[in-house]
Design goal:
single chain, Thrombin, subunit H, 1 helix, mainly beta, about 100 residues, 6 strands, about 10% helix
Length: about 100
C-alpha cells in the first residue's frame, strides 16, 4: 500500500514554494449548490496548484476559487479544482488543488 502523502509529493511537476502557513481564502459550492467560504492554511504553492490543510474535506473535482491576502485591494481570485483530499494523522485534511 502506498503512502498518499508521499504519492502527492512525487507527482508534483513544478517547483513548490513553502508558504510557511500563509492563510488563503477559499470559496466553492457543494453538490447541493450551497456556497462555502473558509480561510485555510496553505502548505505549499506552485505554478500548477497548491496544497492546503483544513479541518474538513473538500470533495475531489470541486471547483474552488482562492485568494491570498483577500483584504488587499489588488488581490485576485484564482480558480482551481480539487484533485486529491486525504486525512492526515492529525485529523486535518491535506487538499491538493490544480489551477485551471
Amino acid at each position: 500500500m502506498s503512502d498518499p502523502e508521499q504519492d502527492f509529493f512525487d507527482r508534483r511537476q513544478n517547483f513548490r514554494i513553502d508558504m510557511e502557513q500563509e492563510t488563503v481564502d477559499l470559496l466553492w459550492r457543494d453538490e447541493e449548490g450551497q456556497s462555502h467560504k473558509v480561510t485555510s492554511v496553505c502548505a505549499d504553492f506552485s505554478k500548477g496548484g497548491l496544497r492546503i490543510e483544513h479541518d474538513f474535506c473538500i470533495p475531489e473535482d470541486s471547483q474552488v476559487n482562492f485568494k491570498f491576502q483577500a483584504d488587499h485591494p489588488e488581490s485576485r481570485s484564482i480558480t482551481a479544482q480539487v484533485i486529491r483530499c486525504f486525512e492526515l494523522p492529525s485529523g486535518c485534511f491535506s487538499i491538493a488543488l490544480k489551477i485551471i
